[in-house]
Structure formats: structure tokens, C-alpha cells
Amino acid sequence: MIEGEYQGFDVRIEDPGIAVFTFNRAERLNAMGSGTRRDLVELLTVAQLDDSVRVIVFTGTGRGFVAGVNNRSTQPEDPVLGPPIPAHAHVPVDLYGRLSFHGQELPRTIRRLDKMTIAAVNGFAIQLGLSIVLACDFAVAARSAKLGSATLRMGWQPDEGGHWLLVEHLGVKRTMDFLMHKRIVDAAEAERLGLVNEVVDDDQLAARAMELASELANGPQVAMRLLKKAVYNAERLTFDQAGDDIASKTAISDFHLDAREGSVAFFAREPATFNKWLTGDEPVDGHL
User: pLDDT (tens digit, 9 = 90+) per residue, 100-130?
Assistant: First the structure.
């Protein structure tokens, strides 16, 4: 099980299989050091391979969701789950490797998950925080949340992959406007731009995120995980390639026990009870 306390965050599991990752360095708006990012990547890898986890929710404590990176912490940053990242040598080739193999790994790992992910944005989601939000499948924002990249305010690049994620959501023209004008937007504007799915009152954020997570966790996990991959693939494939991709995935999901359960329940006009293969009520492989 992945439940526990880690450096900069903790994880709890809620029924039915919702892993809630809570960033807990409120005193620095949950800006992440190297150790936190390293541990998150390790835990998300375990969550991907753990059948007891169906949906992953990210949220923060205090006024910050994740307010960027923190490279000047006075607190220890040695990762709990691996050796520390060596000190930055301050030469171009070293920075290139750090970004490719470490700095960009957290958003990349989130996007690679085939389990559904939700960002419950409780406060400032800046730079890396914005990229985490955009890498998730769903984002629910508190009304007081603020989202932006704004790296140019310090002469930096959105080097964690934020530019790619923004182009995916906004297109080239609006991404250029967003980045070059160093915009930090409120939750309502983020919803208008399509950076988040919905906005709720601050005191309703946790409840709404868990309501959405429960809905997704009770859905047919095999079909949903395959469909998630197909949707992201479709954006970058031709129609014929996307058709081939969804056909190969359908050849798996249509022969899964969840498909039989869904069909029987539909024609009986009853709610379906999916995922019996995860609860021990059906064979583990779940196929007809």
C-alpha cells in the first residue's frame, strides 16, 4: 500500500480505491524541492501498478496547490525513497540533463498514468503547479485559486514542459499570449480558458473532488483506462490511425466481464456494478 507520510506530501486511500496525494509544505505554498518531486514520481509509479488504486487526486494545504519549485530550502531535501540528487554544477550540460531526467519527470509521469487523475486546486498553482494541473485528466479549482506560469518574470523558461501542456490546452496563439504576458489568472478565467473543468466555492473543493473521484472509481476501470489512452492518442493521430488504436483497445474491453455486466444492467434498466474483478467477486483476469 502507498498510504503514508513522505517528504512534502502524504497519501491516504479512500474507498473505492481513491489515492489522495496532499502536498503539505504550506509554509512555502507547497513549492517542491528535488526530494519531493523524486518521491512523487516513485509513488505514482507504484500507484500505477497497484490494482487497489483506481483514481488519483492531487491537492494542497494552505494557500498553495504547488507554487513552483523550491531550490533554496533550508530544510533537508534528501529523498525518502532514493538517493539525493547531486548538487547542481551550474554548467549548461548539467542543467540539460537535470531537466530531461528529473525536472520534467513529474508532469510526464502524471500524463503517462492510465488511471484517472484529478487536480483539486486549492490555491496558487504556478509553473510546476500549473503543469501538474494541466497534466491531470480533470481539474476542479477553488474560487480563490490562481494559476499561471509567469517564469518570464524571472527570465526563466517553463522548462518542466509547461509550454507543451499549454499549447495542448490553449493552442499556439493563446499560449503565446499567456506566456509572453506572464499571466496569472483567477479560477474563473482559468475555467473560461479551459485550464480547469469547473470552479467551486473554497469550502466545497474537497467534497466536489471526492464526488468526482468516486464517480470515476466506480466506473468500468479497464474500459476507462483504455479509453483515456485512446483520447490522448487521438489528438496526435490521423483518423485511420486513431480508428486502429480504438479498435485494438475495444478488442480487449468488449471481452471483459465489465462489458457483460454493463450490457445486462443496461437492458434490465438497473445500475451496473463494475470492477468485480478488483473486489475478488470475479476472476482476476476479468475476461469472458
Answer: 888 889 999 999 999 999 999 999 999 999 9
- Residue 101, number of CB atoms within 10 A of its CB: 10
Taking the C-alpha atoms of residue 281 and residue 286, their distance in angstroms, rounded to an integer, is: 10
Domain-by-domain residue ranges, the chain? Answer: 4-217, 221-279
Q: Which string of b and e fits 134-154 if b means at least 16 CB within 10 Å?
A: bbbbbbbbbebbbbbbbbeee
* Burial annotation 198-228 (CB, 10 A radius, 16+ → b, else e): ebbeeeebbebbbebbbebbbbbbbbbbbbb
**CA 6 to mean position of chain CA atoms:** 18
Q: Cα separation of 67 and 8, whole Å?
A: 13
CA 71 to CA 282: how far, in whole Å? Answer: 49
Residue 16 φ then ψ, to 5°: -100, 90
Q: Which of 109-118, 175-184, 272-281 has the lowest mean pLDDT?
A: 272-281
* Nearest CA-CA partner of 24 in 60, 74, 63: 60
The CATH number for 4-217, chosen from 3.30.450.20, 3.90.550.10, 3.40.630.10, 3.90.226.10, is 3.90.226.10
Cell of 182: 506572464
Integer Cα distance of 169 and 181 in angstroms:
17
pTM for the model: 0.93
pLDDT 10s digits, 48-88: 999 999 999 999 999 999 999 987 654 555 556 777 777 77
Query: Which CATH architecture fits 221-279?
Result: Orthogonal Bundle (1.10)
Cell numbers linked to 70: 523550491
